[in-house]
Amino acid sequence: MDNGILRALRGLGEKFTGRIWRLGYASRFFLAILLHSGTSLRRIHLTIREIYFTGVLSLIIILVSGLFVGMVLGLQGYDTLQRYGSTEALGVLVSLSLVRELGPVVAALLFASRAGSAITAEIGMMKATEQLSAMEMMAVDPIARVVAPRFWGGVISMPLLAALFSAMGIFGGYLVGVQLIGVDEGSFWSQMQASVDFRQDILNGVIKSFVFGIIVSWVAVFEGYDAEPTAEGVSGATTRTVVTSSLAILAADFVLTAFMFTGT
Amino acid sequence: MSRTTLDLWVGFFVAVGLGALLFLALKVGNLASSSSGETYAIHAKFDNIGGLKVRGAVKSAGVVVGRVSEIRFDPEAYQGVVTLQLDARYKFPRDTFATINTSGLLGEQYIGFEVGGDTAMLKAGDTIKKTQSAVVLEKLISQFMFNKAADDGGKK
Fold this sequence. Notes:
Chain A has 9 helices and no strands.
């Protein structure tokens, strides 16, 4: 009896210290990436290759989902706004919700599952097939050669993808609101321009997506690098990437929103 | 290092992404219209500012000429002190009349300038003397009801 309780407690403590240990290791890994990112900037084609894989290949999913999210916002927003007889504010509703929240957050969630998981799987497989060890044997630092370019590729792609998502969503809202339902086009755009502030709304959205880019890329490369070098380990690491980065995005979004959009 | 089709795609991606940002800044946001040029500060005291907000518009003849930059409470006069940042291109006479108006029935509130005839112009840091407070809808309605009741009482 006593033994069982003791074992349970010990297991709990082990899990907890394990988490802390991983957090510390991840932070040290983050610093190592920053220290080694000189190489990925000097050999820019490495980073460009990663921007292609994480950014360009994510374009389709980002653009299509942005369009649909915007169209749904247009429909739902119109339905609610017409009760108050202020359908002209549809443009404001669509653009503010996209630029401030949905653009950065949904784009980051899609990015985590589309590109983050791929990065983790790739690095994890490299580790499992001992390519990383082989690089070390050849005195090539795998963090500088493999990890840092993927990290920076993700960080650069993310704000661009989020901006595309927002722009596409606003176009979708315009398509449904103005073309389909028939909200006045002039007031749709002019009210939008009157209430969306460049610094307050758009720039803060870009900062958000930049932070999310750092979070997703960091989690993805770390989970890949830290994966157990087996097929199971890689699959577990890929799952953890999606779960951890999605949760981290949502939590960071709350914190950032609290900083950016409270008060007047 | 030679150029590859990969570079073309990445270049396309970066260009389109920056284009989307530009679209957001110019077409969606108000970067183009908000000339972040020279401004000067004017104060105005109101008995009741209603729903006026910081960054609200200041309009004269319906044209935006400035923005509300700060709203304070004056504990001595028990009034709201509103600081306005006006575009330095526009000068207004000293006896300009500042009113708080509402755009539409439920729209947001803004400050409207009705220009007086004084030859001296407002300088930075000046306070507008003549102001009119926001119209509080509830007061208006209760006044109307009161008058209505008084009228009905008089008829009988």
